[in-house]
Amino acid sequence: MGAELTLDRRVGWVAHPPHYEELHALLKDGGAGRLLKLTTARYVPWEEFRALPTPRRMGAETAWSLLKLVLRASGIEIPIPDLEGNEYWYHRTHEIADSVARIQCLCRADSDLYRRLTATQNRSVLVRSRIDETMAAALLDGLEIDEPNGKLLLRLDRAPRDDTERLIRNTLTALDDLQSLVDVPFSKELFWHLRYLLLEGVDVRSIKFTAPRLGLIAVDYESQDVARAADAQLSYISAYMNHVAGDVHDHAVLRALLVPDLFRYYRPLPDVNSEVGRLAFRLYALKVGLPVLGMLPLSRIKLKWEERLFDSSIVTLQPDIYFPARERDGTDLTAHSTLSLQIALVALQDLNWELHKLEQRDAELRSLLQRDPEINHRQRSVLGRALRNPLAEFRIAYHKNTHNVVYATARADLLELVDKGLLVLGKQGRAMVFTPRPGLREHIEQHYGRD
In Å, how far from its chain's centre is CA 435? Predict the structure, then answer.
């Protein structure tokens, strides 16, 4: 006998096949419907799920298994099987979709954050972020290096004293050279080239290692198995990053965030996988038009998360919840995707706060200059530009024309700022050229003081 058709004004004509009444009751009684709505909205770990009311005649384990089947059927597959051939996936919850949209908006090349981050006066924030990230990636990979000394090496640009320091230096240099590789497709050869950039002039045997950090993953494959699968994993990763493989709805933001952990987990290269993964992540972000994403110090945030050194309402999955959840979830990467996005949002929040503090500081410095009656409005305009751009150049003719004063007045304005130690006088040919003194911000703070 065929299924009976009836009209339901909410969904249209529906068929009533065998077991329809059971399924209808399962959803209508509220239990299954509520669970489905909740797990579609956000990731729900087992410890929370088992405390929720379940449908009639169904225990928590059964409800959990049934929902996993439903969510996987509508989930997004990751086309990179593990070393046992298991295929991974994640469910694109509303939280994940909202986070992806927010990150994409903030990280595009036309975003206000990118404009502020790359402005000359704010470059110190970007430099500091790169140094912190370079050190954090090294610690994740298990490089044995003292973090304060490593940061000092990069900030002072001193010569490396050993091969471990040379690797750290090469990592920072390589981050700045990735733009030249934007048009090169990802491949095994490209990943090995990135490794070469990192290890140029380095004797790998001399690098000092200690136990690698967890980050978001627990590495548990034997070295011989990793080596055997290396070529295959590099091919899978290349196809995924080239968008040759994978679900069209798997967003570039999530692909990017997965890349560093793919290298850390599968270790497809003989060494420096965290560093290569970091470079590949940055390069991928440039390729897909999300430059700010590639600048984020995600490794540093992962270390802080692991150590519980920050308390943010953005992050809902702390280590004591996340790691048991990952162990229970098996091939379901919804928890990993959720946490990766939360960490990226924390990094964006931190970056925006650093920029805000620097911009606020410059505003305060300009305010300090208002207190000196010997500095006129034209000179304040010069110093305002000098604070915004430490590489700015000032010439008498330009100053004269901009402020509609005579040559002698323009010349006196600039020379007085030299006498005050705010500008430096140089020459290009016969012309006088004025530039901001090194450490102008600090000099103004010390000379003019604060309330």
Answer: 35
